[in-house]
Amino acid sequence: MGDRSAIFIAGILLIALCGCLSRKIEHQVLERGIQAGAALSDSHFAVVNTKEEFSGLYRKIHSGVLPPPEPPPVDFSKSFILVIAMGEKPTAGYALEIGQVVREGSRLVVEVRSIEPDSERMQATVITRPYALIRIEWQPGLETAVFVNPSGKRLAEIPLN
Q1: The whole model's pTM is what?
Q2: Of 11, 37, 138, 160, which sits 20 to 30 A from 77 (CA to CA)?
Q3: DSSP state at residue 50
Q4: What's the domain range around 32?
């Protein structure tokens, strides 16, 4: 009977440990769009930690809009912004979606879904630059953000500080 209890307790501890190693992180998609400014014409992954940096980036993203909109309010003492851009695409129909965001130890793993136009349908021939801005609250011990596609292939890894 003692062996069964020990195995049961070990199993419960293992399940609890696995829950601590990888867990979903609350996040807010502040903005997704298909027309980032020319500054994001290449594939781009970045972290933004200050109001000044965010304001500058936001102006660049919306450089084609007059007057440029104000960036959404973010308390950078509690949060940071992740920036994801697909780069320049030749037609309409491209977009970015954010899947789950999980913590694995000191890493923040962000699933990025790249949406491509249906090859069977006509698309407007227009340059697009899909992007997404994600707000995440700081957590002790987070060091890097890893961006992966839905199959788990690593797209980029960047330090959070």
Answers
A1: 0.83
A2: 37
A3: S
A4: 23-159
